[in-house]
Amino acid sequence: MRSYQRRVAAKIMKCGVNRVWVDPKNEKIKLGVTRKDIRRFIKEGFIKKLPKKKKAKGFEKTQQRTGSKKGTIKARTRAKARWLKVVRPQRALLKEYRSKKQIDVKTYRLLYKLVKGNTFRSKHHLESYAKEKGLVK
After folding, report:
1. What pairing do the DSSP bridges indicate for beta strands 20-22 and 47-49?
2. Residues whose CB falls within 8 Å of the CB of residue 122, separated by 6 or more in sequence, listed in order
3. Residue 135: how many CB atoms within 10 A of its CB?
4. In the structure, how many helices (H) and strands (E) does the chain have?
5. Following DSSP, what letter does each residue of 66-82 receive, concatenated?
6. pLDDT at position 9, please?
7. Contact 40/28 with Cβ under 8 angstroms?
8. Residue 67 counted as domain residue
9. What total of structural domains would you count in the chain?
10. Could you give the CA distance from residue 16 to residue 18 in angstroms, rounded to a whole number?
11. Cα separation, 57 vs 21, whole angstroms
């Protein structure tokens, strides 16, 4: 019958069932059926919330470790994150060109599609392409 009280107490104290401590000596707890009863037991100290368990030492060591990184930057970052890091500055450059009237809307659309298609390696590559083709004034 104690499992029911533990579950209700866990909900009241907003923690997991394993963090609920129920006094093994007190027999009154078995009679507690309502949430009101459980709240009273918590207030009286017959039911308590245990502290969170500490993480294992090995876990802490791995978090603190510094030194050589294993794997290339491509292996350590998500592909989408890498792509966004390249594309956002390129799109910002295109918006800047358009707002300064250095390119017209048609050219903007053309270059935007090329950026989206991963044509350019970097912002500098996009600039040099636009100047080489005579698209930027």
Report:
1. antiparallel
2. 86, 89, 90
3. 16
4. 7, 2
5. -SPPPS-HHHHS-HHHH
6. 95
7. no
8. no
9. 2
10. 5
11. 25
**Among all chains, which residue has been given the structure tokens 């993480």?**
55
The answer to whether residue 1 scores a pLDDT higher than 60 is no
- The residues, any chain, with a CB within 8 Å of residue 40's CB and separated by 6 or more, are 32
Residue 114 pLDDT: 97
User: Do 137 and 103 touch, CB atoms closer than 8 A?
Assistant: yes
Domain extent for 9 = 2-49
Residues above pLDDT 90, as percent of the chain: 68
Residue 10 contacts residue 17 (beta carbons within 8 Å) = yes
Q: What is the CATH number of the domain that holds 31?
A: 1.10.1650.10
Encoded amino acid at 115, one letter: V
DSSP string, 90-136: HHHHHHHHHHTTSS-HHHHHHHHHHHHTT--SSHHHHHHHHHHTT--
Residue-wise pLDDT tens digits, 19-78: 999 999 988 888 888 999 999 999 999 999 999 887 766 666 666 666 777 888 888 888
Residue type, position 38, single letter? I
